[in-house]
Design goal:
CATH class of the largest domain: Alpha Beta
CATH topology of the largest domain: Glutaredoxin
Distance between the termini: 107 Å
Number of domains: 2
Number of helices: 12
CATH superfamily of the largest domain: Glutaredoxin
Radius of gyration: 30 Å
Strand content: 5-15%
Length: 324
């Protein structure tokens, strides 16, 4: 072997040994990182695997029964101890949304049971517990959510307020949210208030006599309010219900800038009752939970709530299905 060949051979051996040393060092660091998880934020932990969804028994054909089964057994196979699920929206958040979409088909009792079961299991770790409550708040309490629903949010709030795992400080906001959610529930009599019209004449909401009443809290210079007003005016079903005397509309401005309200009076149809809350009780005393403007309620002749925080489209559909 020539001197040059021997030299190249030794260099190759040296590189090989260095490579082995580096590999061993890396493996050692990785092993050490696993032992001291969280000590080094440069490592990327593995995402959790999908959890197996439950399915209703094959013999259960009734849709209501299937929904009730799913809502109470949805999380049976979920590992609540693995907080990495809180960082896997494609798994956990997607599953949670699927869980919420079962609610409309299930009974209120089973929804409450399913939520209680979910959050009780999640109490194994405060991170997991907070994760599910925040997701519930986002989807069920946010007025911009397509599935915003106080009735579905109430079981989450009730569990949080009653939880022994949380301090009183962490319960301040949920307790206030629950207090508002309990007001003007579907099936309950809507709370009364006084409104003032442009003439200065006052009236009480409960004194408006009609088979149905659409109560709309609005701001006259709000773009979404104008869009909703236009949609209500354009609805053939709503127009027919008003014309027949079946429905009366009470639009109420709940804020203090009366000059703005007065400048937009012409935007409200003359067939509607249009007023403002001179005392500001609706807002200041939180008689109604105005998460967003406009806020619409459909009430029956006894002023019991039929539709809460609803839309012009839902009211149009209701009167389409309840023609005389």
């Amino acid at each position: 072997m020539s001197f040059l060949t021997a030299y190249k051979y030794n260099i190759m051996n040296m590189r090989f040994l260095i490579s082995l040393f580096l590999i061993a060092s890396i493996m050692g660091c990785t092993s050490q990182d696993k032992k001291t998880a969280g000590a080094d934020n440069t490592s990327t932990p593995a995402m959790p695997k999908n959890f197996e969804r439950v399915t209703p028994p094959g013999m259960m054909a009734d849709p209501k029964q299937r929904a009730n089964y799913m809502v109470t057994h949805f999380w049976d196979n979920f590992d609540f101890r693995d907080t990495m699920y809180c960082h896997a929206p494609n798994i956990t958040e997607r599953a949670f949304v699927d869980f919420l979409y079962i609610f409309p088909g299930a009974s209120p009792e089973k929804i409450s049971e399913g939520v209680k079961k979910l959050l009780t299991l999640a109490e194994v770790d405060v991170v997991m517990y907070n994760y599910f409550f925040k997701k519930a708040e986002h989807y069920l309490h946010n007025p911009n959510s397509s599935i915003c629903n106080d009735e579905h949010f109430i079981p989450f709030l009730e569990h949080v307020v009653a939880s022994e795992k949380l301090s009183d400080v962490h319960k301040i906001r949920p307790r206030h949210q629950l207090e508002l959610a309990y007001k003007n529930r579907i099936g309950a009599k809507a709370l009364d208030f006084t409104y003032t019209m442009a003439s200065g004449r006052t009236g009480r909401m409960h004194d408006v006599s009609a088979e149905y009443m659409l109560l709309m809290f609005y701001n006259p210079d709000c773009i979404e309010c104008k869009r909703t007003t236009d949609e209500l005016k354009a609805s053939a079903n709503i127009t027919a219900a008003i014309s027949s005397g079946m429905l009366k509309v009470l639009s109420v401005y709940p804020d203090e800038n009366i000059s703005i309200w007065e400048s937009h009076i012409k935007d409200i149809p003359s067939s509607w009752i249009n007023g403002y809350d001179k005392s500001l009780d609706v807002k200041n005393k939180e008689i109604y939970d105005l998460k967003a403007i406009p806020t619409l309620y459909l009430l029956d002749k006894d002023k019991k709530v039929i539709l809460k925080d609803t839309s012009a489209g839902a009211i149009h559909e209701y009167f389409g299905n309840n023609r005389r």
